Amino acid sequence: SQHLRQRGGGGSNGDPQNENWSELQEDSIIAACPTRGRCPFCRRYIDMFQLQKKKNNNKTNQSDSTTEEMEMEMAYRKDIKLEEIPLCGLTFFDTRRTLGEHSFHFPSNSTDAADGTEAHDHDHTITDGPLISNTSNTNMPFINFINCAQDERLDNGNPLPERKMFQPGFDYHETSQTFRGTIDWIEGKGGSTFKGSHQWEVIMQFSSDFVQISKGGILKYRPPTTTTTTTATQTPVYQTPLDGWWNVIYRRTRRRERTLTTTTGDDDEDVEQDDTHQEWVQVVDNSFYRRSGDRYIIDLGCGDGDGGEQQRPSCIWPRMTKPDGGSYSQVVESGLDLQQRKDGPDVGDVIVWTTDHPDYHRILWIRKTKNNCITIERFGLEYQGSMNYIRNTGISFTKPTYNLESLWGNVFIQGLRVGYASYHFTSPEGEGENSAYISYEHRACAAWPLLDNGSPVPSRVPFVRQSFDEENRTFSGTIAWMEVYNACWQGDKSWQYEIIFDTEFTCITGGKMVAETQHGTEGDTHTFGHHLNYINAALVEKIRLEADMMVQNEDDGNHDEHVSTNSSRAKAMAIVNVNRGITKRLHEEGVSIRTLAVVQSVARGILEDRDPIDYLV
After folding, report:
1. Cβ atoms within 10 A of the Cβ of 524, count?
2. What one-character DSSP code corresponds to residue 325?
3. Which candidate, 322, 375, 533, 598, has a CA 20 to 30 Å from the CA of 190?
């Protein structure tokens, strides 16, 4: 720890104001961002890209004027050029949006290799830095944002810029394939905060083949104070005086029980006690979320009440109703006077709320941070609502097809998701991905652990030394982590597979995967039909085609022109009969109950007129 330290203070970018962050705020950032963590010795919150190390100085004698700062140097380079890293020429877009709507572009000098468009100069000079594009044209995503100007604007009412450049001095960590850059929304002509944020810190970790952003997040920094100015007095009006982190303590009111010494004429006495339940809340834009996921909106009490008195700040409790149908609420009793203290209480001050809920008479809010809030929007699917960004390759996924006669051409899936460690059998003549491989292309795989050397898990991992016994329908192959990627995964250097299929390649009936550890010993064994349950990714297609043929045959055999079996009921019965036939055959071939349950879930989805399989299309 003497040779490696963090530059600046304990907060982001060495800002001393951020040293007052609560550990809860820090831990939430660490969970989202792979470049943030804690020192293993002192547990200090650190940023990998701000680490410094002792400078290698060949001089044996140094003058007394040499300071410790002069002996230190950054652990990671700060003069990285875009053409030096693999991101050059790539484009990534959110699958919930279209290309050019909050999509990330890393342009080369002349051509964006991801979409093949030339980089023309509009209102800005093209530099070697990456950028966020807010345009919506597939040929040239750097045009203006005029078509959506009414939907998304800066907080001052100006339209979003055509593109927003990252600040100079972005970072890139080669081993973990992680990029970090800063967006300054205030900078530039007409600049303003964007949805309350004046700065974004974007941290993106990419999959090994740069197909998707597998982890990371956008840290959205809010200004220290959010104010407007009254025209008449030019005095600041604080719009979000409660923004920050608060420790919340609930107080119950209980009746003191009578004792033998209690005088019969005395009334029972109320006793107020702190509840054991406490929690942390972060107020952003005068609202906060509790662990239940409910959003609580705070009314600051601007304006006068019915009696002409200033309304006190209050908050209605969502989803909690009184016996008469009304809503419970909490109202400030003391500790918050926005007439006297317009920017809200200081750190350490306490707000006392009273409630009309029978269990909680009072609630105490103890302020831990003031303003300078950070909200986090995550990449990957590890958390609900996260962003799913993929590379714009121009390649569209297609549904897998069913091959009844051979293994080759089929795809087998678990969890009803293609790319979720699915097995792809392309061709017996090819090599690598062109023959057989495991796909980790589904966005849910972004939440899985990294390789043991810190690299992301490849999107496609080929089998090596593979063979297929057609007579016994048995595939053998090895996933050689150490041999192919020079890294183990969760302590395993390789996986040896034996996979047995049913007679019509509907599912995997048996076999196993045996791991070999990094020490050369035998590791865990996973059995198909028990730990691993895989079905053909085109099973929906198979069932529907066979059901349609069954209905057609019944129609051909029905000579009464007034009676037709081509109805929804007839189709449903055909699906049921096809499923029964498949289930009976698979049961006779020894397929496990767990794998049969997956087959049944597909049939239920078809009966409900939906496709239960996620094809990544």
Report:
1. 13
2. S
3. 375
